[in-house]
């Protein structure tokens, strides 16, 4: 039986193991008689704790506020941190990722001590993924001296991004070599929540992450990136089919192991209802007749109809099956869901010749009559968008699309945490080939990336038609590769963000809200780190490049440039 249903107990058990930095004189005081001795911990029981923690945190970013950054989604209430990047110090996020590293460090130690090579390689792969995410999000970070509190290193130095990325690459190469030769999975199938103990698939995962990080450093360290990508491509061992994707299914027993914002644990459904598709993504999908559109999003509940015969500028009340419902300005989302399922259609009419925005200070654009309507990024108050009659925190905009009802669920189907994908690998190779590197055909990889993404979302049968669309058929440009890679990063938007930061593509336009002056580039080091390890943190901050958007935080701002993009002219 899979170990997943025992994860809550494992998380509690492993939390008892995080006392490794205690002084010897405190050992007796801190011993828990019901705990597990770290020196005897079974690596099988540590491995799923690391994997589930990382996957949960990663999807919370990619489906959460980073989707707001990269204009996949917007929120139409309580939106400052989501739409406008009004961020504070990232202490909880920082603690989470280093917490995963502590557990993973124990996994690695016990795997080496018990001579279980498969688990050792898993730990190396996960260490690379976690450190890579930390450096991607913040910049410089503790690396070579991290996790050494038990050795007396209480104030670790912050290593440069260059050092961290080079270390990540070496870990992944080592892991790949072990997976290729170990064949030592033992009990792993019962505890491996990604691949059921398949060393072959883990090697593909490690090599796909190599492609990711080689491309990540390609502008700064091309002499490492080019031969690295060429070597992985020549090996043929990387994700080539959506069935290879590194994903974690959710078991849905509580909010900690369910899809983020599942309405089973949010009775009011407000977290789901306020999450809306961004117009940037919706418009792309609609223009290209993208079959993923209907998988991810719903049509508007009440569609606007241009009606030049209308005496006034616009209907005050909605219409059901063409008949005005006198006195009814709106119905709740729950009411509309039931009535639409029963076959009713809802509209409001406006006269395009006489219509004037009712609140021009909030929105003075044209009424959007589309079947699918996204919220423009960075609006001053998105609750007013498209003449919504129920503004404010009611979050009942019947004239803007919502996410598919699938995303109200807590498990099953497409609700997976995705750490890396075959589509990503193909788009990386397409970019490499477009650079002239020995990585095959850019067009073939680009087409494969689209096919694999459609496969992921259950619409592979639409590929032959979709690939012929004018805006989709390969035109040989990096912009097109990055656009489709951005689309394919749905629910894994962190990769779309890091690609945008590296390339400036797609050419996203920030909104009009004061804090939306540019898309952010990094997370902010916390005051907790500054207070406890100030010298090292200040050294890392000093190496950041302040920009015209950095604002009062100066170098320690979400708009300051880390090493990875300094001197590249990207993304702005």
UniProtKB/TrEMBL annotation:
Keywords, in A-Z order: Lipoprotein, Signal
Signal is among the record's keywords: yes
Region Disordered: start-end pairs: 549-572
Signal peptide: 1-23
Transmembrane segments: none
Keyword Nucleus (UniProt): no
Protein name: SusD/RagB family nutrient-binding outer membrane lipoprotein
